[in-house]
Amino acid sequence: MKNLFMVFFILVIFASAHAEKRDKLVFTGPFTAVSYPLIYMADQNSMGDFAHKTEFRYWQNPDQLRAMIAGEQADFAAAPSYVGAMFYNKGISVKLMNISVWGILHVMSSDPAVKTFQDMKGKKVAVPFRGEMPDLIFRHLAEKNGIEPEKDYDLIYVAHPMDIAQILLSGRADTAMSAEPAVSMTIAKSKELAAKGKGNPLVKVIDLQQEWGRVYDTSPRIAQAGTLALASVIEDRQLLSVFEAEFEKAAEWLKNNPEKAADIIVNYLPNMSREAIVIGIRNSDMNPVPAYDALEEIKLFFSILHESDPSKIGGQMPDGDLYYHDR
């Protein structure tokens, strides 16, 4: 009788847990590699114990991302790390789960004379996302090299990294800062054109991660982007713990299987080629580190943003409650 009761009790618990399963989880992210683990998890329904289905929704620009977070339209978001700090300091429930991409920013040029920030003086330089993470890092490192970007460069701002290719390949500028995979895609296209006698090929001339390490005497990586857990899930400790483990497994699988990964991801990102996705995986430092284990590097990044524009992190350095840790 006792055994029958125990079996009944277990079945009731299982049924209750199943009944509480969410209808769906929504992941959101940009077209860059920071989104790829989320896309793979959605495709594989890695969180199937917690939701009947998982959707991935692509955000096209930072304003759209902020609207999605404020409107509670997603459960997890791949985003610049400072976006989490900004919302947290505004009183919106959010947890920074991890830093998953540490290095995707480069300066490229078709001018063989360009090797340093100083060499770009007087040049037209194309830059994506004015006032956002790539632009902020670029301008900060330029200033550390004795440059006044607004004065010394003729900056051409574009809405999206993929727009950089049009500017460079059309000859409107010969130098640009951008993010992977747009950098490698643009360089590859320039080599094709150069082989036909159309212009000089582009090359990477400054790795902003290496420059960051040199300037701050630290590892050549920047706590640029990661994953945010949003209001709808941050109280579910079991879900967050499983998510963290599944995310790490997804990132590892992607790194080891870029070709197979591209076959999956290409179905979720509009206007992205399979080749670009493979390049994005291979050329991005995709190494997820739990936020709590990366505090020193995150705080360095946030402190520099706070110095240059406090509004980017919501006016002040966030306290420890921003960072998820399963301890």
UniProtKB/TrEMBL annotation:
Keywords: Signal. Residues 61-261 form the SsuA/THI5-like domain. The keyword Signal applies. Transmembrane segments: none annotated. Residues 1-19 form the signal peptide. The keyword Transport does not apply. This is Putative sulfonate/nitrate transport system substrate-binding protein. It comes from Denitrovibrio acetiphilus (strain DSM 12809 / NBRC 114555 / N2460).
